[in-house]
TrEMBL record, chain A:
Pfam families documented for this protein: Peripla_BP_6
Residue ranges of domain Leucine-binding protein in the record: 30-396
Alphabetic keyword roster: Signal
Species in which this protein is naturally found: Hwanghaeella grinnelliae
Secretion signal, residue range per the UniProt entry: 1-26
SUPFAM superfamilies in the record: Periplasmic binding protein-like I (SSF53822)
Family: Belongs to the leucine-binding protein family.
Protein name listed in UniProt: ABC transporter permease
Matches recorded under PANTHER family: BLR6548 PROTEIN (PTHR47235)
CDD domains xrefs: PBP1_ABC_ligand_binding-like (cd06334)
Domain of life: Bacteria
InterPro entries tied to this protein: Leu-bd (IPR028081), Peripla_BP_I (IPR028082)
TrEMBL record, chain B:
GO molecular function: branched-chain amino acid transmembrane transporter activity
Cross-referenced InterPro entries: ABC_transp_permease, LivM-like
Name of this chain's protein: Branched-chain amino acid ABC transporter permease
Membrane topology: Multi-pass membrane protein
Taxonomic source organism: Hwanghaeella grinnelliae
Keywords for the protein's UniProt record, in alphabetical order: Cell membrane, Membrane, Transmembrane, Transmembrane helix
CDD domains recorded: TM_PBP1_LivM_like
Spans traversing the lipid bilayer: 27-43, 49-69, 76-95, 101-123, 130-148, 184-204, 234-258, 270-301, 322-345
Gene Ontology annotations for the cellular component aspect, listed alphabetically: plasma membrane
Subcellular location per the Swiss-Prot or TrEMBL entry: Cell membrane
Length: 437, 358
């Protein structure tokens, strides 16, 4: 009896929930799928804080985008795909319809691509998710600018060639590729295969199983024996810190060890202490607090509106990534408002805004983010942007420092792969690629 | 008074052996089933159908599967996630290899492949018992997930390694993939659930189920009265894996729309084990109650603060969610170690006496 009563009460209150969630307001609703809990929280917290800080700064400084305040609503996914889908379903209708989603997880992105396309809500998966979504003809609602994993792999090889003195110097080189044994870590392998054949280098694969990310002794003993010219890493979570520590244990030259942009957070270098000095990683945005817009962030923190508990977090590249992501979103909202009027815009209008995003050097200077984000132009066909490129940052013992210019990706290598994978996707899902003319 | 079985006279063997011999039970279950199939799709919104009911029903199927193995046959398994993955990957292979065959067969093909894999990994149960068996099923969990990630054949050589569940129709209505409406996916899943629960209920009260329970209660005694451990244990593994495989295929096709290894990791195995323990070992109803409890309680707690209008940070809500959830599981297991199904039985017991309890 009591149990039945309890169950009835639970159902009644739950039904009530669904009703209340549907109340409308006129702000621009931006649901934020974050993970402040769970195994990946150390990476998820700075990402979420950077993301929120930019929106909060726009609200605080300008009163929103052209007078439309941004209503950010967090939903914690814990990096789990099913909770991410639930969060998406829960938040997609808030405030008259979600504007855009940045899932911060490749798994959640994959699960949302079709759902969001169907609901006409764009996804901005910045530097993760499905690489072939760069083909806007097959994936109209998914954007992955400013660079994809495959572009990043070619840029890293290009960077190595620059250091060695030219692409022809790559011939005969031997690399070690250390990666998380997961779709994410395996993603650049087809690209590396193409590059290896094209430039005549070889590379050994060292998979790290996700279940034992912190046990890499045997891998690094192997690397000590084979003495590769460079080590390239595609890691995430606890794997990054372990790899850098093991590399310093075997006295691997740190300046020859290059991580991808998810291996370039403070979590990768702090555990190894002084041993990690010199470690490099790719990034697609600047790092640190030395850009003009940061003054407004300072002002906001002085007013007590910031989301980080400790401002030291702002030197973490992951905070910068969340911040840059939000900046792109705000610029896309501005683009959409220029066409549709300064009001709350819908997901479909936001898609137009993202697709017609054109960030020039001047605009970036106005935003106070020169050198922090690259100029960018998105088109209907190309959702990765017109010049995918990376920066290389190096750990100096207390902070990251950008040590290279923008290293462009070899689009002539990546484009056919994107074409091939998106064509396979389109045929499996009976999609006719739209025309962009 | 409200619930009674007095005055029910059975005049034939058929009536005595009916699935639900008490008319009240029978009408109640029929009413709930009809309500679930006919009324729910009309009164629920997309969020409730697509994000709550569909996953709960799918997890119920997996929980029934594990309950057959652990609750009825007494074989502890930590490989549920892997068997679900087997169903999802093999279902995907079947559906893409034979695009014209009805999707129902695709889902069932996933279940059958999973059953065969279950037999292979169930073989050690003939020599190993209890916790040791749990460890060997853990091997299945790690091996299968590794295999599906390692061999590009399982994902049709997709470069990304995470293929999308292809859209398929029944009677011209899309039931899988993202474009399928929540209602269509719900009705598709609920039909599977009802059919599988009905089969499971009949299995466990028949000869097969009785041999499982005999093995569970004392395997030497069961052997002495003529029950063959080989067939019994392997049939439990096969049928359990079949259920898990169907659940995995439905999870990939009707819920998350992608065939993704991380959806079937070790945490999924534990989640389903908790459902079975909290719901009630050796009870079909318990599988449903456990699945609903374990899946919806965190979401309910998460929504709860938002509705109250309290300004609590997202991280705090999630931490409270974990604490309350953990606390409630401990509370339930202390108050009622036989699970939610036992609470239901007690409720019926009380209703029988009401309003004159002694």
């Amino acid at each position: 009896m009591e149990f039945r009563k309890m169950a009835l009460a639970a159902v009644a209150s739950a039904v009530g929930l669904a009703g209340i969630a549907a109340t409308a307001y006129a702000d621009q609703p931006i649901p934020a799928l974050v993970y402040r809990t769970g195994a990946y929280a150390p990476s998820g917290i700075p990402l979420a804080n950077g993301y929120l800080d930019y929106f909060a700064m726009i609200n605080e400084r300008d009163g929103g985008v052209n007078g439309v305040p941004l209503a950010v609503e967090e939903c914690d996914t814990g990096y789990a795909t099913d909770r991410g889908v639930e969060c998406y379903d829960r938040t997609k209708g808030t405030g008259g319809g979600a504007t855009v989603y940045s899932p911060w997880s490749t798994g959640i992105t994959y699960a949302l691509i079709e759902k969001a396309t169907n609901d006409k809500i764009p996804i901005l998966s910045m530097g993760y998710g499905r690489t072939s979504a760069a083909n806007g003809k097959v994936f109209p609602y998914v954007f992955n600018f400013p660079a994809t994993y495959w572009s990043q792999a070619t840029s890293v090889v290009q960077y190595i060639a620059n250091e060695a003195g030219g692409l022809d110097k790559l011939k005969g080189m031997r690399f070690a590729y250390i990666y998380l044994d997961h779709p994410y870590g395996k993603e650049p392998i087809p690209t590396l295969d193409v590059l290896a054949e094209k430039f005549g280098f070889t590379y050994d694969k060292y998979p790290v199983p996700p279940a034992s990310m912190t046990e890499q002794k045997s891998i690094w003993l192997q690397i000590r024996k084979t003495k590769p010219d460079y080590a390239i890493m595609w890691g995430w979570g606890a794997m990054n810190g372990t790899a850098v520590r093991e590399a310093s244990n075997i006295r691997f030259p740190m300046e020859k060890f290059i991580g991808n942009w998810w291996s370039g957070g403070n979590d990768a270098v702090v555990p190894a202490g002084k041993g990690s000095i010199g470690y490099k990683s790719a990034t697609f945005h600047g790092v640190g607090t030395g850009f003009d817009a940061y003054k407004d962030v300072e002002a906001m923190y002085a007013a007590g509106k910031g989301s980080s508990a400790d401002k030291a977090e702002h030197n973490n590249p992951l905070w910068a990534r969340g911040f840059a992501n939000a900046a792109y979103i705000v610029e896309a909202i501005r683009t959409a408002q220029a066409k549709f009027g300064n009001r709350q815009i819908s997901g479909e209008e936001m898609r137009w805004g993202l697709e017609n995003l054109d960030l020039s050097e001047e605009r970036i200077a106005e935003m106070g983010m020169t050198g922090y984000i690259p100029p960018l132009k998105i088109t209907c066909e190309n959702h990765e942007g017109d010049n995918p490129a990376i920066l290389v940052q190096q750990w100096k013992g207390d902070k990251w420092e950008i040590i290279s210019d923008w290293v462009p990706a070899m689009t002539e290598v990546v484009a056919p792969l994107i074409e091939q994978d998106s064509a396979q996707y389109a045929s499996e899902n009976n999609i006719t690629p739209r025309s962009c003319n | 008074m409200i619930y009674r079985e007095a005055g029910v006279f059975k005049t034939s063997y058929d009536a005595d052996m009916a699935l639900l011999p008490i008319p009240m039970d029978k009408y109640f279950v029929i009413a709930v089933t009809l309500f679930a199939v006919i009324v729910v799709p009309f009164i629920s919104n997309e969020y409730w159908l697509g994000s709550i009911l569909v996953p709960v029903l799918i997890l119920s199927i997996a929980a029934i599967g594990l309950n057959i193995l652990t609750g009825y046959a007494g074989q502890v398994s930590l490989g549920t996630g892997a068997f679900m993955a087997a169903g999802a990957y093999m279902g995907y292979k079947f559906v893409t290899a034979f695009p014209d065959v009805n999707i129902i067969f695709g889902i069932l093909a996933g279940g059958v492949s999973s059953a065969m894999i279950g037999i292979v990994f169930g073989a050690p149960s003939l020599r190993i018992k209890g916790f040791y068996l749990a460890v060997t099923t853990l091997a299945a969990q790690f091996f299968l997930i590794w295999l599906f990630q390692k061999q590009p054949w399982f994902v049709n050589y997709s470069i990304s390694g995470v293929p999308t569940a292809p859209p398929r129709e029944i009677f011209g209505i899309l039931v899988t993939g993202a474009e399928a409406s929540a209602t269509a996916r719900y009705v598709f899943v609920v039909c599977f659930t009802i059919a599988l629960a009905w089969i499971a209920r009949n299995l466990v009260r028949g000869r097969v189920g009785r041999t499982w329970m005999a093995i569970r209660d004392m395997d030497i005694a069961a052997e002495l009265i003529g029950i063959r451990p080989l067939q019994t244990k392997l049939s439990a593994f096969a049928i359990s894996s079949f259920y898990c495989g169907v659940a995995g295929a439905l999870w990939a096709f009707c819920y998350i729309n992608t065939v993704e290894p991380s959806a079937f990791d070790i945490n999924r195995s534990f989640q389903i084990l908790f459902m079975v323990i909290v719901g009630g070992l050796g009870s079909i109803l318990g599988s449903f109650l456990g699945a609903a409890f374990i899946f919806t309680l965190p979401i309910f707690l998460n929504n709860f603060f938002g509705v109250l209008g309290l300004d609590v940070s997202t991280a705090t809500i999630r931490h409270i969610e974990f604490m309350v959830f953990g606390g409630l599981i401990v509370f339930f297991l202390i108050v009622e170690p036989h699970g939610l199904a036992r609470l239901w039985a007690l409720a019926k017991e009380k209703l029988r006496m009401w309003p004159f309890p002694y």
